[in-house]
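Researcher: We plan to redesign the surface later, but first we want a full-length starting point. Tokens attached.
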């Protein structure tokens, strides 16, 4: 009886803590837009310097947010291979099992760009960070690819989820070709990052309050850089993109199978 009551109390606490985390995330984004980014915008510097400051602010904010979720018992996490990240001109491609993936990645990468869904540009809680960090909209696919390539070739780092949206647990990976096209056009460093989450939570179509029976564990495994020569030298470019996209899809399918029991 005592253990049952204890489990129920812990569940209730984690439900409250999860709701508090989401509230803090939204409130933090709004406060950054109202109080922090207006100050940064009037500081001298080029647009690139201002974007750099914005990305650092988002990085530290997300670092604090992940720390909050860990401290109040919502999640645990671990990272292997972090030393392979934070390099200029680096394209980080990752799978996307849970809602907090991008937050977790940016919390560990001091300056990184990413692709943001068009509708989030109109979200008052997200608009400030999105605009001031120079994130790229997916509204126009052609323009999106060009902006990503330019960013990488200028020495910036970038995070992309080739799936384009969160994974559906138990279903095969289905990658869009945008990430492969960006990687081959930019011809810079490509580093795969495998994320695994157990128990599964905050997946596609799940609400924030549908929490698992215990705190979730998020693991980040940074792989070795992917050599592009074989694909760069393939003609025509459309075939090269298709082959590289299939390579990425196969790689992450294997990695997902490898880590599917991780943390149990």
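Model: Full-length starting sequence:
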């Amino acid at each position: 009886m005592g253990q049952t009551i204890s489990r129920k109390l812990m569940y209730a606490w984690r439900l409250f803590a999860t709701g508090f985390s989401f509230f803090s995330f939204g409130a933090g984004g709004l406060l950054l837009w109202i109080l922090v980014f207006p100050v940064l915008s009037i500081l001298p510097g080029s647009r690139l310097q201002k974007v750099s400051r914005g990305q650092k602010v988002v990085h530290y904010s997300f670092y604090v947010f992940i720390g909050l979720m860990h401290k109040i018992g919502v999640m645990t996490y671990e990272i292997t291979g972090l030393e392979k990240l934070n390099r200029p001109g680096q394209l980080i491609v990752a799978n996307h099992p849970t809602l907090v993936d991008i937050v977790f990645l940016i919390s560990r990468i001091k300056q990184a760009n990413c692709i943001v869904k068009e509708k989030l540009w109109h979200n008052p809680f997200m608009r400030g960070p999105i605009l001031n960090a120079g994130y790229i909209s997916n509204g126009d696919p052609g323009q999106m690819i060009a902006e990503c390539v330019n960013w990488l070739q200028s020495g910036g780092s970038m995070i992309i989820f080739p799936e384009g949206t969160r994974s559906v647990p138990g279903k095969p990976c289905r990658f869009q070709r945008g990430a492969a096209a960006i990687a081959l056009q930019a011809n810079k460093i490509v580093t795969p990052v495998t994320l695994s989450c157990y128990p599964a939570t905050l997946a596609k179509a799940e609400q924030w309050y549908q929490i698992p029976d215990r705190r979730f564990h998020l693991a980040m495994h940074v792989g070795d850089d992917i050599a592009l020569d074989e694909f760069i030298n393939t003609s025509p470019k459309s075939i090269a993109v298709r082959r590289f996209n299939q390579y990425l899809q196969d790689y992450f399918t294997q990695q997902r199978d490898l880590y599917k029991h991780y943390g149990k």
